[in-house]
Every structure is written in structure tokens, then in C-alpha cells.
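Below is how a single chain appears once it has passed through the pipeline. First comes the sequence as given, then the structure the pipeline wrote out for it. We keep one example in the README because the format questions we get most often are answered faster by looking than by reading.
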Amino acid sequence: MRLRQAVFAVALAGLCAGSSGLAAEETPPPARPAERPCSRPEARQFDFWVGDWDLTWGKDNKGTNSIKRAFDGCVIQENFSGGASQPLRGMSLSVWNAQIGKWQQTWVDNEGSYLDFTGEFADGRMTLQRKATLQGKEVLQRMVWRDIQPNSMMWDWERSDDGGATWKVQWQIAYRRRASGPRS
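Resulting structure:
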């Protein structure tokens, strides 16, 4: 009994002193860092949008949009200004949600709007959509970034009153990358 207690005491003392039980020349393998969801290729699908943009829509309407990566590159942050032609100012935060395999975006603005979207990048287009209630009727709303080029693209705000069978463009914005400065 005393021998067993002595062996236990020696083993306990070794653990308390930091002994790992490995021989002096052995070292444990390095721990693999956990993969961060924002380091996945899907988390880079919105990179086309990052930068400073001049916007035009309708007849003579102009605005700006500044999009950057934030929070260690895991979040896409948008700052929109409708300019003199439209007093709308707003911002959005977008993130690749690896758990659901989709992009999610939250939009807020100076008109008190709060909109939440979910979607994906497919066939050269980013599409984020949401359900909404307008005048007591459920509709679908979506944003579509299309015709994406290094220095230009189109953005459409669309609505469907028939569950997504057909879509009507409500607002269309042409994006032109500002010449001043590289993408961030």
C-alpha cells in the first residue's frame, strides 16, 4: 500500500512539475490552428465589391458607396450615400456564414430601415434576398450584383409578388470604380 502511494506521489509530482511523460528528445506535434470561416474561399466572393464607387441611377441621380473589409477581413462593411439627389444614407455589414453556407447581410439607414438578407454567389452574380410584408402582403425582395467587371457592375433591387416566379426591377444602380486609390 505504501509503495502504491509512493509511486502515485512521484507521478503526481512529475505532472505538477510539467513532465509530459515524453522522452527528452521527443516533442509533441505542433497543434493545428483551427480554420477560420472567413479564410475559406467562399468568404472572398464579395471581394469584387470592395473599394470606392461612384453611382448613377435614373435621370441624373448620383451617389457614392465605400466598401471595405473589417474585423480581420471577416466582414464586408458598406457605407452608402445617395448624395444631393437622394438624402438616403445607410450602411450594411455582410459576412460569409459557414454554418449555413450562405452570405448574410444586415442593412440600416437614416430612414429607420432594418433589412436582413441571405444569399449566395452563383453564375457570376451575387444575389441576396429576404421576405417582407408590404401593405399586408408577403413579397420577396432581392439585391443582385451583376455584369461584374473590375471597374464596373450593375446592382438591381428587385421585388417578386408571386413567390419568386417573376421579378420586377425597382431600382437599378450603375457602379463605376473611383480612379483614386486601389481596392482595400
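The first helix runs from residue 2 to 16.

See the next section for the split statistics.
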